Structure formats: structure tokens, C-alpha cells
Amino acid sequence: MLAIIDSRSTKQAINNLNKYVTDVYAFQTNGITGNSISGHPDIFIYQYKNQLVVAPNAPVELFVFFENHNIAYLKGKRDVGHELDNSVQYNCLSTSQFLFHKSGYTDSAILEINKDKEFIHLPQAYTRCSLVHLSKDNYLTSDRGVEKVLLQRGFCCFYFNPEEITIQDHKNGFIGGAVGICGKRIFFNGNIELHTDGHRLKEHLLNIGFDIINLSDEYLYDGGCIFFVNRR
């Protein structure tokens, strides 16, 4: 198992993540998109299980990492840029039945491999940043608009206040960008228990069978998710 994480995560978080995987890629870009999301893997990578779709203008070093570790991936159709419409096309969330995103923003390569799934339109184009699929019909979000849609569809949706989630250049980040899931382990980029909502979320996660791993002693950091990937 390998992991991808924002290079601007704390040294403690990256070192602790290394204890659970064979290699960690510290993701970073320069000048491709806005600074706040420039180190966010979920801006450049779509993932569902072992399916990866990667922006064509992702760092060369990332493709080298994939090749060296024999990780399968597809290249997307559109480059990531600085505007909303070209910085969200890979930031969608998929399950076995559904593809969640804001209509009109998804890269065509992702739509093609998910053509047999139901597309669920959400009001938030930064979907993967804002939404976590925990298990079956159980979700976690820090966006009230996303929560409303999921509850209307009959899903269980835990709302987590985004205040106190740090991010570069903005007042607060999103919960999706501060976590990664590997099996029944949920990894937090920071310490969930420092957050005002932390103990409530911790109880919820324990109740549905998750092991909680806090990667550092800092407040939660939205680094664009932690990705866990397998070799072919």
C-alpha cells in the first residue's frame, strides 16, 4: 500500500503516515492552480478503489512514482487550472452505485468509466473536499448544501463543522480534505480530538466500526485528502 498527501502537511503527519504504508508521495505543484489547493491530490486525481484518473498536467514526478510502483492509472482529458471550472473536474466522489459531483464540471474520462452509475448532482463542485463516503449509505460532510441533498435521498449524513479545519490562504477548509480511508482505518491529517466537533464525530466513527488514526498533534489540516493506492 502507498499513500499520497499534501507536501505541506506537518512533518509529524507525513512521518506517521509512513508507518502504515510502504512509501509516501508528498504532492506539490507550482503555478498550475491556486496556492491554497496547489498541494491537494484530490484536485489532480480521481479515485474509486483501484481506478485512478489523473490530470494530464499533474507533476511528472507523480507519474514516475506511479510507474516505479506499478500503479495503474488513466489520464484525464482536461488540464487543471486556476479557475473554478478547471480546478474541480477531478474532485468528485464515487461509490459502487453513485457518482457525486456538480453537473457540468466532471472530466469526461471520469464520466465514461462511471457511465453505469447514477450521477447525483451536488451544489458543491469541490465535492471530494467536502464529502466522505464512510460505508454503505453513510456519509460525512462539512457542507450544508451537500448534507441537504444526501438527506433528501435517504442517506445517513453526519455534518461536521468546517471551522477549525485549517487550509492555506482561507479561513477554514473542508473535512473531506483532512481525511483518508484505508479499509476500516480513517486517517486524520491532524488530531480530530482538538476540534469542537471532534468527540461527537469520534463516537460516530467508532460506532460504525472505524479505527481512528490521528497523524499529528495539530488542528485538522485540509490538504486535499490522503490517497491510498495499490500496485497492479
UniProtKB/TrEMBL annotation:
Q: Report the superkingdom from the record.
A: Bacteria
What sequence ranges are listed for the domain DUF6873?
A: 4-227
Report the protein name in the record.
DUF6873 domain-containing protein
Record organism: Candidatus Scalindua brodae
Per the UniProt record, the lineage of the source organism begins with: Bacteria, Pseudomonadati, Planctomycetota, Candidatus Brocadiia, Candidatus Brocadiales
